[in-house]
TrEMBL record:
Monomer. GO terms for biological process: protein transport. It comes from Rodentibacter heidelbergensis. This is Outer membrane lipoprotein carrier protein LolA. Pfam families: LolA_3 (PF19574). Residues 1-18 form the signal peptide. InterPro entries: LolA/LolB/LppX, OM_lipoprot_carrier_LolA-like.
């Protein structure tokens, strides 16, 4: 789950909108929110068929990420500067097993448009145009080399797909659909991410 959250945060930060690093940073800082649906296929080398999950996400700049899995079961997670927490039906509960401090800091850096932390851990390659682009992240730090072989993010106006190729042989494909930029948030998302 923590790898999925880390990957998602990389992906949904509307990270790769431009040709240059400066355009990329500018695009990261522009949207106040991105929300939509996701479908995740987790390919484990020990299984013949992928494990499928579906749900909704809400990403709000300087606030955090709300990840609402609906299938095969309901789970709500939020990622903020305070860490990763799970909704138990009445309150948010800290679950230390779901995240790592370094991944959370990296996520918050992406939300604020600071790619310096990302560049310390990955070699970045951006290709294509604003209408059809691809970003390839190859781990450069020892920690990330232990987790990933590479991460590929593709999109047009917004991120459409993310592939996480993990070092131990597993792979995760996340497809984002019905993406909306700066649309009104649900009451639950506003409360979860403490949006005024």
């Amino acid at each position: 789950m923590k790898k999925m959250i880390f990957l998602f945060t990389l992906l949904m930060s509307t990270w790769a909108y431009g040709f240059s690093e400066q355009a990329l940073i500018s695009q990261l800082q522009r949207p106040q929110s991105v929300q939509g649906d996701f479908v995740q296929a987790r390919h484990l080398k020990a299984l013949n068929r992928p494990i499928m999950t579906e749900g909704k996400f809400t990403l709000v700049a300087n606030k955090g990420l709300l990840w609402q899995m609906e299938k095969p079961f309901n789970t709500q997670l939020r990622v903020t500067e305070k860490g990763i927490m799970q909704w138990n039906g009445t309150q948010w509960v800290n679950n230390g097993k779901l995240g790592q401090a370094e991944q959370i800091q990296l996520f918050l850096g992406l939300l604020s448009g600071d790619v310096s932390g990302l560049k310390k851990q990955f070699k970045l390659t951006l290709t294509g145009s604003s209408q059809q682009w691809q970003v390839t992240l190859v781990p450069d730090s020892l920690l990330m080399k232990q987790i990933f072989n590479q991460i590929i993010i593709q999109g047009d106006e917004v991120v459409k797909m993310m592939t996480l190729d993990e070092a131990q042989g597993d792979k995760t494909d996340i497809t984002f659909k019905n993406n909306q930029i700066n649309s009104p948030l649900t009451d639950f998302a506003r409360q979860a991410l403490q949006v005024q």
